[in-house]
Amino acid sequence: MATTTDNEVSTANGHETPAKESFSDAVRRVVRLRDVIAILFPAALFLGVGVLPPAMREQLAFSTADPDVLTALTSNFAHADSTHLFRNLTAYLFVVPTAYLLSVLADRRQLFYTVFVVVFTVFPIVLSGLNLAVPRNALSLGASGLTLAFVGYLPVALAEYVRRRFDVVNVVRRILAGGVFFLGLVIVIPLVAAAVQRALAVALTVVALLAVVVYGVGLRRSGIDRSTLRGPPPGFLELSIWSTAILVAALIAAFPTDPLSEAGVVNTYTHFLGYALGFLSSYLAVLLIPKFEQT
To answer: Taking the model in full, what pTM does it have?
Structure first.
């Protein structure tokens, strides 16, 4: 439901936007130079560490045999070689700007920055620490776990964006966020569990699919149909599709069927932790913190 005046539209969820604001106008209005600089800073840091001599980069690695807090942090910003750096940098530059654009177009800039700060200050320690739960003698390097945390945030950002731009009831964002997350699990589980036990992969995939169906039914009962998608001007729906494609592509790339690479073994355990914790932390923040729950 929307009430139209001469200059603006006041939607049922309490936000106001210029009447019939085009996608390009909306992007120009919400994107800020300082935000772009903030997003590019970690990428520049990855590149800066990447030009260090191999011996110095190895000293930044987190050793599961001899762990310490400093390398638990630094290992997330260093990479084994140029190929490893290129892959993680590419993933970062696709995922994070997409999450940012969804967030600011949903009037959730503060939520994005909260996630951004937590991912780069708390998650390195958490992900490195949780690697100690799997006994092995290994060196850990790379920003992929942090990027997967942003992938985990994508379902929440997408749900906030749909609530804001497609004028749907507030409860839909919770249903949509959960549904998109479990859709990601449908992709991840077969890739990860099949290497361990195919029967387990099948069972877990069925459970994830059932969850997606349940969330889909919930969306339908909430009144979401094709007419909802025709609400905003061209560009807004396309961003939703692009965001979903980025999530799917990032998950497929993060969980290769063959984890062996020239740089070493792909740490799919850390990737899964990043994705799951990135979603849970941002989802719970929206539900439990009043300033994020506001409509």
So the answer is: 0.85
